[in-house]
Write a structure and sequence with these properties.
Chain lengths: ~350, ~350
DNA sequence: GTGAAAGCGCTAACAT
DNA sequence: ATGTTAGCGCTTTCAC
């Protein structure tokens, strides 16, 4: 008949000879509708190709069954993989998603985004942009303006908010310890941009692992990159000059590690014999580098998925049980994947 | 005062001693409000921390200023880069985004997604999932159910829908022609999964360029991969056996090309001297491969951006000028980036 | 089991 | 320049 979405609950009620509430009960699968009434209504609904308006429902019910998601740096594989985990799990649990992306990582005009989410009656918010510089400062001022549960990903621990993150510190320690276990003692580090909390955690993990092994960490052993392969190339060249006796290097991410391999190749440095390399992230390509890359694998898809699950729990707690829940703090442990760039005994490449 | 979002237009009207309509005029920046009335209302608004409800506005206005975006494969860099272009331009042009991701590329349960978008009063839809197998078949049945403008990305041309895409065919011809210009005559191809329209276009570009050069294309010169580095490794090994005289290869994407370089390295095949390699995509890392990779660069961020711009044009045309517009067909030309994997005269690596 | 009335928060179309 | 009326399409509450 009329095109989908044209019919309203009122038409259905009229055609079925019942009231709008009865139709409402049917479409929401509520009890207290006689079996044959329900059937009659369902028939009319399919006849009329009736589709309830989510907007009207949101207005009346004062909730939308949607979450607001704030992301940043979608063109990088990490954030987009996390988002992918978010979409999959939200779908599974019956929630839709409103998406905003920060135009720059350190953008500070947070208020309009929050307002936009809230004005759309989101049931909860996922703050999936990384913590950089002072881009979490707004929390102090605005936390109580937010009337819905909110979960922050990849954020330094604080007691007043819920956080789900990867344990970067632990991952970095594992990476460094792996190099130490291989007998390396001159271990450098190419850090991510230290404005990033994650980069600082990884640096700290390297430092603490070195110190725990009785080795000292000097300034010249660390160079800061910006996650890009390009910056990695600059960094490794600088590091090789400043720290020529280096026999192992923990690189802040796999992209920068790629450039370390390229530089070594160009200079005739053999990997892993002369220089053992460990990356961080575990991107799929890392297995196909020359040589394949030892790395700390963080499952960012899982991160997003867990975050949604926890957010749903918070929302349910508030709505169903009407109880305020304690903030959640989860840190997912990453995993060491040993490949040829650190261990010569590993077979040559992916196959 | 009350927490943000608590106050309604009614409270503001009462406090300011005007009607709701006047408040509405103020918040929508409409004319016909006296300067001092406007000021008084604005003061009350900021006193009460009033925030209009986007939901109520959507219901009443029968539009939401939001677009529905369907994506797929966010964990891959292509789709997520496109999404990034979409978010940036949507933000710029004043639109919000409702996001859905297909759980698998070839998923066929499209109807619920469409219904979900429409029930949320989206002003338009961006279909940003790639065309694979028969996953566009639904268009025939459902196109007239969709009451809003819709733009398809990366879709084979058809006259009844609007399409914005990269010109894959042209890119593949450029890649192959580049190898021909270098004097190579034995040129193989590692294709993407041929279920994908893009993969078929790239295959066709290779074929046509070869034929135009008077060279014949045989079955054994082509191996099908699935875009992953892993599949690329299998493919290049197979190709080297079936087509040993090969002196150039056009690889369907950069990830698979990475494995070609790894395989060549392991077998002692020198690149580009013995085998010239061209990839497709132009991912940032490709510059840092060993050796750096010649590739066809497609600007997917721009693709997403253009798609949004065109969608806004369609929406405006319908709303403002109330005119039906002809479907749009745009094909963005990709760009050849020459690096060391095809041309030995190029300097060594990124620096 | 079912229905009537009131309302969610806003805007379009008309008054004045 | 401002106000009134009547919705937008649904759900909640309470009555029957």
């Amino acid at each position: 008949m009329g095109r989908t979405g044209k019919a309203t609950i009122y038409e259905v009620a009229r055609e079925a000879g019942v009231s709008r509430q009865t139709v409402s009960r049917v479409i929401n699968n509520k009890p207290d509708v006689a079996l044959d009434t329900r059937k009659r209504v369902l028939d009319i609904i399919s006849d009329l190709e009736y589709q309830p308006s989510a907007i009207a429902r949101s207005l009346s019910q004062r909730r939308s069954y949607n979450f607001g998601v704030l992301t940043a740096g979608l063109k990088y594989i990490g954030p987009s993989t996390t988002l992918s985990g978010i979409t999959a799990t939200a779908e599974e649990l019956g929630y839709g998603l409103l998406l905003k992306e920060l135009s720059s990582f350190s953008a500070n005009n947070i208020h309009p985004i929050l307002i936009w989410f809230l004005s759309h009656q989101v049931d909860g918010i996922l703050w999936a942009a990384p913590e950089i510089g002072s881009n979490r400062d707004w929390i102090n001022d605005m936390l109580d303006e937010i009337r819905v549960p909110i979960i922050f990903l990849t954020t330094e621990k604080r007691d007043d908010i819920s956080i789900v993150t990867i344990d970067n510190y632990h991952g970095a320690k594992m990476a460094t310890q792996h190099l130490l276990d291989l007998g390396r003692k001159q271990i450098g580090h190419i850090a991510g941009p230290l404005e990033w909390w994650e980069a600082r955690q990884r640096l700290k993990g390297w430092q603490d692992a070195m110190r725990a092994a009785g080795l000292k960490t000097e300034k010249r052993m660390v160079v800061e990159g910006n996650w890009s392969s390009k910056s990695g190339k600059v960094a490794i060249n600088q590091l090789l000059s400043a720290y020529p006796e280096m026999d192992g290097v923990f690189v802040g991410n796999d992209q920068m590690a790629l450039s370390v391999l390229q530089a070594a190749f160009e200079r005739g440095i053999s990997i892993p014999e002369q220089l053992a390399v460990v990356g961080f992230d575990g991107i799929p390509e890392s297995e196909y580098y020359c040589p394949s890359l030892t790395t700390i694998c963080q499952n960012q898809h899982h991160l997003g998925s867990i975050a949604v699950q926890e957010l749903v729990r918070l929302v349910d707690a508030v709505n169903l049980e009407n109880q305020k829940v304690e903030p959640i703090h989860l840190a997912i442990k990453p995993e060491l994947i040993i490949r040829r760039s650190s261990d010569p005994d590993i077979s040559k490449g992916g196959d």
